[in-house]
Each structure stands twice: as structure tokens, then as C-alpha cells.
């Protein structure tokens, strides 16, 4: 068995990735959970939050599960996302990544989560649920 290199925690909820107008405020519905992410660019405002929080009239991509790399991670660590995304890409598993000051979050479609867990475990990662 491969040596465990990092611990990854699977969140229980299913998340959505919503697209709003670049001038919109961060909506209150997005903030009603322990995890949400808001990113504003010159083109859009993207929100990641539990998909049950997203109103029906909002454009969003649904059925994402979150894998949290347990941190905090030191900024000097190199290749964490590259290693995980490489393992998953070999199995044709698409990801959506979010990085914060302390750690990284990998979103994987619900239909691929069991395979992703299997691949990451085989790759030496310790998965907790």
C-alpha cells in the first residue's frame, strides 16, 4: 500500500456553481452554509454553495461534491493540485478547484465521486467521510 501523503475530506452536501452578472452583489442565499465561495472577475460573479440554496431562476451547474485537502497547507508546498488533478485526469474525471489561504478544495461531479475516491486512495491519499 502507498504511503498516505495528505488527508482529504469528502463533504456530505451536493454543491452548485452559479454564474451571476459581474455587477451583482454576493447574494444572501449563497452564504447560508458552512462553505461558500464567491469570485468576482471583470466578466462575472461565480458562486459555489449548496445547490439547494440556489434559486431556480439562477444559471448554475449542479451535482458537484467537494473534496477538501485537510490543512492548513504551507505556501511552500508544491504540486498538490497538480498531483490530484493528474490522478483524476488519467481516469477522465473533470474537476473544479478552489484555493483559499489555508487549503484547496476539489469539486468533482457526483457521478464521478466514487471513482475519484478510489483513484485518490490508490494514489496514496487518506480519504475521510
Automatic annotation (TrEMBL):
Gene3D superfamilies: VC0802-like. This is Aspartate kinase. It comes from Clostridium algifaecis. It comes from the Bacteria. Residues 60-121 form the CASTOR ACT domain. InterPro entries: A9CJY8-like_N, ACT-like_dom_sf, CASTOR_ACT_dom, CASTOR_mTORC1, UCP008459. Residues 14-57 form the A9CJY8-like N-terminal domain. It holds the Pfam family A9CJY8-like_N.
